[in-house]
Amino acid sequence: MAAPHAPKKVVLAYSGGLDTSIILKWLQTEYGCEVITFTADLGQGEELEPARQKALMLGIAPENIHIVDVREEFVRDFVFPMFRANAVYEGAYLLGTSIARPLISKHLVEIARRHGADAIAHGATGKGNDQVRFELSAYALDPAIRVIAPWRLWDLTSRTKLLEFAEAHQIPIARNKRGEPPFSVDANLLHTSSEGRVLEDPGVEAPEDVAQRIVPVEQAPDRPEFIEIAFERGDPVAVNGEALSPAALLARLNEHGARHGIGLLDFVENRFVGMKSRGLYETPGGTILLEAHRGIEQITLDAGSGHLKDSLMPRYAELIYNGFWFSPEREMLQALIDKSQEHVTGSVRLKLYKGLARTVARWSDHSLYSEAHVTFEDDAGAYDQKDAQGFIRLNALRLRLIATRKARLGA
Question: What sign has the CA pseudo-torsion 235, 237, 238, 244?
């Protein structure tokens, strides 16, 4: 018998893994509702056809199974706008998981509308940030949508109970799922995130086998590699002279970065829900892209614009981390950021070596850099050094007045 106020149709964010398969069956048994699945290809590197087969096996009609390649949309409409801001959370994290959640919610809401569903569901736990990100995004896009979060509702509170439920409902359990998993992994085209279990004690070094995308820096090539990235209005458009789509470009940078051990981060962050969490993040292409974008901004962005952007960046990054991608304040900041990128066009050469990506050259037709003004040689009258005296005296006026007061008062 269906629970009171049970939804009739639910769109589930479905990976095809054990946990979301259990959620799928739980929705069917708990509510007696029709379940529609959505699986996003975010470039996680996994074969997604098994998700379709698993959904079919669990009784989902073929027309209710949605597996969508969103890689280009993900990079073009979410990752690139974020990188225009040079967004970094708490000085280190490049927001790889955070930026994917609003995209998933967007598609859940769109599919719900298409099918006339009255609810969506996700597999995020009640301890993490993802529940907040999924749900804030969903409500921003459809204020009437109902969100079901089974981890906050059911009594399957242990691994043993989950496995018992799976066995009772003929849900296949992979052999490696019967024991405690060594750590949890979330991956997309921007990064791989590993957390939990063997990573929970921040005082213990992460095991070497946790990193899955990046070679250990000790095994990286002993010779540096030089690459060039071209930008147009703040977005990368080509690598080594080859024009690439957003997703293909990020994938190419991932290859370069992973080969040289670039982009590995062991980080303890402050979750929005209040606790601290330790994770191991691998963001090879994103680390290169951040360095390159800052490199091209160095010669194309004026000091006032650049310093204002830098002062706003922590707030922008925090909004993304906390799940406010679709908020008016994030959109307002994005408009300011995008305005700043009108002349961020040109190329950057980077040196990749042993875990580091370093800008070594940058050039642009939009450059504000004037060699005539900064040269130590004869500048042919481009700059009158006598002008500096008045500049300094005016800027020193308030400091001299303060010093005079101190002397008068004997302070």
Answer: positive
The answer to whether 199 and 186 are in contact (CB under 8 A) is no
How much is the pLDDT for 158?
A: 83
What's residue 47's pLDDT? 84
Give the C-alpha distances (Å, rounded to integers) separating 105 from 39, 54, 149, 208, 281.
Answer: 11, 22, 13, 34, 23
Contact (CB, 8 A) for 295 and 350: yes
Active site residues: 19, 101, 130, 184
Question: Model confidence over 277-287: pLDDT tens digits?
Answer: 999 999 999 99
Give the DSSP H/E element, type plus range, for residue 310. Answer: helix 303-322
Helices (H), 180-280: 246-259
Structural domains of the chain sorted by starting position, each given as residue range(s) with its CATH number in brackets: 9-70+92-179 (3.40.50.620), 185-301+343-363 (3.90.1260.10), 371-405 (no CATH)
1-6 contact pairs (CB < 8 A, 24+): 1/32, 2/31, 2/32, 2/33, 3/30, 3/31, 6/30, 6/31, 6/32, 6/33
